[in-house]
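Lab notebook, bench 4. We co-purified these components, and the gel suggests they stay together. Before we commit to crystallization screens, I want a quick structural picture of the whole thing.
Request: model the full complex, all chains together.
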Amino acid sequence: MIKVLFFAALREQLGHEEISIPLDSMTTIEQVIESLIVQNPSWKTAFNQSLLCAVNQEMVNKKHAVNSGDEVALFPPVTGG
Amino acid sequence: MQVINNNTVKIAVQTADFNLADEVNLLENNNDEDGAVATFSGRVRNNNLGKSVSGLFLEHYPEMTEKSLKKIIEQAQQQWSIGRVTVIHRIGQLLVGEQIVFVGVTSKHRRDAFAACEFIMDYLKVKAPFWKKELSNGIETWLDAKQSDEEKAQQWQP
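Here is the predicted assembly.
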């Protein structure tokens, strides 16, 4: 299993702040997003926006590997400060 | 959330306000080797992109926020000769005029403190997981990231 967290506008658009998805083999963030869209076709638009991603609280790119037990986070570009 | 390492680094993410004088005292207290103290504080403006603004809501990713601020401070410590660093970021509901963020850096001479303070702020803007929702005329809108912030941060890359 991996845990996927959503923040800010993305969280509101999806109506979820956290979901768990089963993971059989190593995958990438890109593939995680693709499988989320397959399960929830209405999420496609939200995922087509510019998004940042983190694995285990470190910012990474979408090609980054994801392993079972990882915490993946997807969110819009940050706007703090 | 508050982390203090060896008296040199303070990171705080909090709903409560902070006091500038107290933060400068903390940077200066028992720190007579540093002659420079550079500070930046950011507050909620009453306008944005031509609209009047009445407040902001700040969301963050708690497990990642401290990690990312720590990493930014470490990068500053590698590039400049600096003494103490404090970064405070507020979260939750903030009204016009309220303080949002504080960055304070000490160094022997001004150049390192100025540069590191600006670097930390520029990187915080594009790397730290905070998001602002703006309240304007009764309507709440998530703010879009600015390309100019991304470009500003990229200027620090060697």
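DSSP finds four helices and eleven strands in chain B. Worth comparing against the SEC data before the next meeting. The mean pLDDT of chain B is 96.
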